[in-house]
Structures are given as structure tokens and as C-alpha cells.
Amino acid sequence: MDKLITILILTVVGGLIGWITNILAIKLLFRPITPIRIPILNFEILGLIPKRKKEIAANIGEVISNELLSMDDILEQALNNSNGENFNSYIIEKIKAIINEKLNIIPMPFRMMASPYIDEILNKEVPSALSEITADLLIKAKENVNIQAIVEEKINELDLEKLEDIIIKVAKKELKHIEILGLVLGSIIGVLQGILVIFL
């Protein structure tokens, strides 16, 4: 009976140690936010994420830019065929409205006669003109917009406590699993220690 109690105690102690250790390890990812110096040891304690925030921001920016959301992807989505056709139609209708407004002094019969020719010119010229403008915009956008730099800057601007909240919210389930894993592994080690203490 005493042997069983010994194993049980070591199991509980081992589980608690494993659980608390993993909780502390997770906390130390974020805390302390500001450096704590130990003068005698000449040692500084700082959370991993606060310490390497700039490096983390740069790596996230690079991954998003290269693997997830490149400038080419954004522009392709914004200027796909359906969007392009809608944009062409919108511009043509706006030009027609302006022409009708400016030419209202011209008698209606003449405007009706000219309307098919105006429509033909607009339908022919507007898409090609917009294609040229779009091509120029694409080149300028690729040259001037840096997804990686934008993401990196936004992360660096985040308050560390806000960044902590975001990470915990996103990885809450996984972090809880890590805590439970510490409890399980600690308990297993406690059982093994109990067996070794009793039989050796």
C-alpha cells in the first residue's frame, strides 16, 4: 500500500511540475515585456517575443509576401476579367452621361443620330485606353508597394500586450494542449520515478 501511495504522490508531483513548467514556458514567451536586470549576475531577463519582435515581424512579412499574398496576387484579383469588364462599363457610362449633359444644347434628333457612333467609339477606345493605364498602374504599384515592409511595420507598431492577446487568441487551443502535454509527461515521469524508487 505504501508503495502505491509513493507512486501516486510522485505521479501527482511530476504532473504538477510538468504542467506548471509548461505554463511558465508559455508565459515567458511574452513576459517580461520590459527587461529585468540582475546586476550581480550581469544577466537580463526578457520575454522571447519582446526580445525578437523585429526579427519575428520581418520573418512574418517575408512569408506573407513570398508565400501567401504577393503584390501580383492582389493586382490579379483586383483586375481580373470580370472586374475589368465592370470597370470598362462604368467608365463608358460615365463618359456617356457627361457627353449627354454637355451636348444638351444640341437638338435631340442630332444627338440620337450621333449616339450610335459615340457608342461605337467608346466601346472600341475605352477598353484599350484603360488597358494601357492599368499596365502603367501595375508597374508603378509593383515598384512602390512593398507587402513585406507594410506587414513588418504594422507588427512592429503593435503594442506588445496587444500582440500577446492576438497570438494567444489565435493559438489558444494549441497552447492549452502544450499545458496538458506537460501534465501528462510529468505524470509519466513521476510514475517511472516511483517505480525506480521502490524497486531499486
TrEMBL record:
InterPro entries the record matches: DUF445 (IPR007383)
Keywords for the protein's UniProt record, in alphabetical order: Membrane, Transmembrane, Transmembrane helix
Location in the cell: Endomembrane system
Membrane-traversing stretches: 6-30, 178-199
Chief subcellular location: membrane
Protein name per the record: DUF445 domain-containing protein
Recorded family membership: Belongs to the UPF0754 family.
Classification via PANTHER family: UPF0754 MEMBRANE PROTEIN YHEB
One Pfam family cited in the UniProt record for this chain: DUF445
Iron found in the keyword field: no
One cellular component term from this protein's GO annotations in UniProt: endomembrane system
Species, as recorded: Clostridium tertium
